[in-house]
Design a protein that fits this description.
With 265 residues, this protein is mostly helical. The protein is built from six helices and six strands.
């Protein structure tokens, strides 16, 4: 392309030179005007040739070439933008897929959590019906706190019974196995509720360690005397030097607790 343009330019210059000589011989103002016009055309042809070479050049080392004045650079830029658009499209598609998966996971978590809470409420209420037989106490929901159905609160004994039944359900479904540890398990419950709690504890806890007061022996601690898996330890601190002695067995436990019943008051 460059050689052809140069050859054509040379031919034009040759023709123009011949015509120039003829016009000069003819003389006159018209000849000078034509000569100036020819020189302008030659200059414009040279500029156009340079621009064409710049447009068609593929010289990667020419810093003057840009996507605005060179076809090769423009094609490279076009391919770059095509790749960037493809990346953005894939990223956007992946983002939409991630958002969809996140939405599905959150929905599954919500449904699973709701179903689990409903099952915990159901099992806890089953235990409550066996523990509290003289009143209607039922859990309605456990969202952030235990809400009772149709009532604003419960007595101390009922509250303790609800706690045992609820914790028993949680222990029941837990993958971890460890004993339930409680201090003064029956508190101020009356005998009937004490007995109900004592009867249900083996059903809701596989293992329990209870620290009882003397007042809790009757109708609670003594309910486990016949259970061969129960162990009794009596911890006695000397009032003189605070030395601690531990006695094993039901006999010492029962006699000591009944002998000291009311001391905790």
């Amino acid at each position: 392309m460059g050689d052809s343009t140069a050859l054509a330019s040379a031919i034009v210059r040759c023709c123009l030179k011949t015509n120039e000589e003829k016009l000069i011989k003819a003389g006159g103002e018209k000849a000078r005007e034509l000569q100036e016009r020819i020189e302008e055309l030659i200059r414009l042809i040279s500029i156009a040739r340079d621009e064409l070479e710049r447009i068609e050049s593929k010289d990667e080392n020419d810093a003057s070439l840009t996507e605005e004045n060179n076809l090769h650079k423009a094609e490279q830029k076009f391919k770059y933008y095509e790749q960037e658009i493809a990346k953005a499209t894939r990223t956007n598609t992946a983002l939409r897929k991630k958002e969809l998966v996140d939405s599905l996971v959150n929905e599954i978590k919500l449904q699973a959590t709701t179903a689990l809470k409903q099952e915990i409420v159901r099992k806890t209420n089953e235990k409550l019906r066996r523990v509290i037989v003289d009143d209607y106490v039922e859990i309605e929901s456990i969202d952030r706190y235990i809400k009772l159905k149709g009532r604003d609160g419960a007595s101390e004994g009922q509250t303790l019974s609800i706690a045992y039944c609820f914790l028993g359900t949680l222990f029941e479904d837990s993958e971890l196995e460890f004993p339930f540890i409680i201090d003064s398990p029956t508190g101020k419950m009356d005998f009937e509720k004490r007995q109900a709690v004592a009867d249900i504890i083996p059903l809701v806890f596989n293992q329990m360690i209870a620290f009882v007061q003397s007042a809790e022996v009757e109708r609670f601690a003594d309910r486990f005397y016949a259970n061969p898996d129960s162990q009794y330890l009596t911890v006695v601190a000397s009032p003189q030097d605070q030395a601690v002695v531990v006695y094993e067995g039901i006999d010492f436990f029962d006699s000591y607790q009944r002998e000291h019943k009311g001391d905790e008051k």
